[in-house]
Amino acid sequence: MKFKKRIKALAKNVYMRFCYYTASSHTKTVFFNSFNGQYSDNPRAISEYLHEIAPEIGQVWVLPYHVSAPNYIRKVKPRSAQAFKAMARASVWVMNCGYGVNDGIYKGKSIFYIQTWHGDRGFKRIGYSAAEAMGRKYKDYDDLPDMHACDLCVSASEFGEMVYNKSMRYSGEILKEGSPRNDKLLHVVNYANEADRIRKSLGIDKGDKILLYAPTFRDYNRTNQACSIDLSQTLGALRQNGEQWICLIRSHSEAKSLRVNQTDAEYIDVSAYSDMADLLLIADLLITDYSSCAPDFVLTERPVVLTLFDEEEYKNQMRALWFEPEEAGFLVARQQEELNNILRKLYTYDHRKIADAVNKYYKVYETGTATRSLCQIIIEKTNK
Fold first, then answer.
1. Which of 85-89, 169-173, 223-227 has the lowest average pLDDT?
2. Mean pLDDT of 355-359
3. Nearest to 127, CA basis, from 169, 75, 83, 181
4. Positions of E strands within 121-185
5. SS3 136
6. 138 Cβ contact list (under 8 Å, min separation 6)
7. What is the pLDDT of residue 260?
8. Are 278 and 198 in contact, with CB atoms under 8 Å apart?
9. pLDDT digits (tens, 9 = 90+) for 2-37
């Protein structure tokens, strides 16, 4: 199996070299890849703003053909020959996911590679740091990230810089202005119309408060992951405050489905919704576990609760953690009744103070202008 993988990687590398060196000219084109097939996250924020200010720059996205995207985007099927050809002939790469050391990807000298990553402030160890802590139990042990060809990484915190260094062994240039997808979370008031549009598209009444439940995936079970919290009790505890709450449930893209008992509570499954940043924009409360969406959501200064119901199993069998989440100042529940108690007295907590503590722990430097800065760099590189 490893032999076949090496042959495929070699063939890919040769093909990409051929495409690069036989191109008559390298056009002003940016190659985007978000989670190997989504129209979302940091690449989406950059792509949309780039089109606003420089529509003459071509955009190629790794996307299945059924995925909805603006008509100025050219789609190439994930892991297809067309995708590798477009990648080899682009002026700039913008990705939020890395490729492995054994993938066979070739980057020509004239290409500028920007890595935005997707978990600047997470809890889980990844890459080389996970391999060091967990050994062969780490699922990606044989396919660790390859960052030697990267020209610029995007970070929003000192913690994120540490992750690049220790988990990806990257020591190159870092743009320290924030994550593009989070620009809107720092200015939620300015995005009221967009928030209304998103709510309307999901059929949510204007008066309803929104709970977003977004657990991360479990390595041992990605196809039928069970919902760990009791949604009926959770919404019941929230409604004791005299408000009407609706629950949005979003399974992680790596978890093919999230098994929920539909009699537990009224909810809307938004797992197929393209961009998590939109859901964070409209949520009034986030409940998650080990997901890096929690530190992002903190930027809104709205409530977030971590439900670590399977903490020991998770740390022993799935991922080592960088630290205990309480150290950063998060509200944490380790069983349902503890979660219920937190939700019943949700408004007695000073969530702005909690946000300040979390941001100070990670040493955050989100500016709200990361998208603009990156687009200016891209324009400069495509004009060379």
1. 223-227
2. 97
3. 169
4. 152-155, 174-176
5. helix
6. 130, 131, 319
7. 59
8. yes
9. 778 889 999 999 999 999 999 977 679 999 999 999
261 falls in which pLDDT band (50, 70, 90)? low
The candidate with the shortest Cα–Cα distance to 286, out of 299, 275, 273, is 299
Q: Minimal CA–CA distance to 275: which of 118, 98, 110?
A: 118
In angstroms, the CA 287 to CA 238 distance is: 12
Task: Answer yes or no: are the C-beta atoms of 90 and 23 closer than 8 Å.
Answer: no
The percentage of residues in the chain with a pLDDT greater than 70, rounded to a whole number, is 93
Amino acid letter for position 384: K
**CA proximity to 332, closest of 312, 305, 309:** 305
Q: Is 173 exposed, middle or buried (0-12, 13-18, 19+ CB in 10 A)?
A: exposed
Cα–Cα distance, 231 to 254 (Å, whole number): 22
Instruction: Provide the angle, in degrees to the nearest 10, between the axes of the packed helices 370-382 and 41-53.
Output: 60
pLDDT tens digit sequence for 215-253? 986 655 555 555 678 888 999 999 998 899 999 998 865
How big is the chain by its Cα radius of gyration, in Å? 21
C-alpha span between 178 and 365 (Å, rounded): 6
d(CA 292, CA 118): 8
Output the CA torsion sign for 297, 37, 49, 119: positive
Distances (CA, A) of 185 to 177, 283, 360, 384: 14, 11, 17, 33
What is the structure's pLDDT at 227?
Answer: 64
Three-state secondary-structure class, residue 144: coil
Element (H, E) at 74: strand 73-76
pLDDT class of 259 with cuts at 50, 70, 90: low
Listed residue (157, 187, 194) closest to 299, CA to CA: 187
Distances (CA, A) of 54 to 28, 72, 92, 180, 234: 11, 12, 14, 17, 46
CA distance 170 to 161: 9
H or E stretch including 50?
Answer: helix 41-53
Instruction: Locate 159 and state its tokens.
Output: 């913690």
Rounded CA-CA distance 152/112 in Å is 8
Q: What is the pLDDT of residue 241?
A: 87
| Residue 212 near residue 279 (C-beta atoms within 8 A) | yes
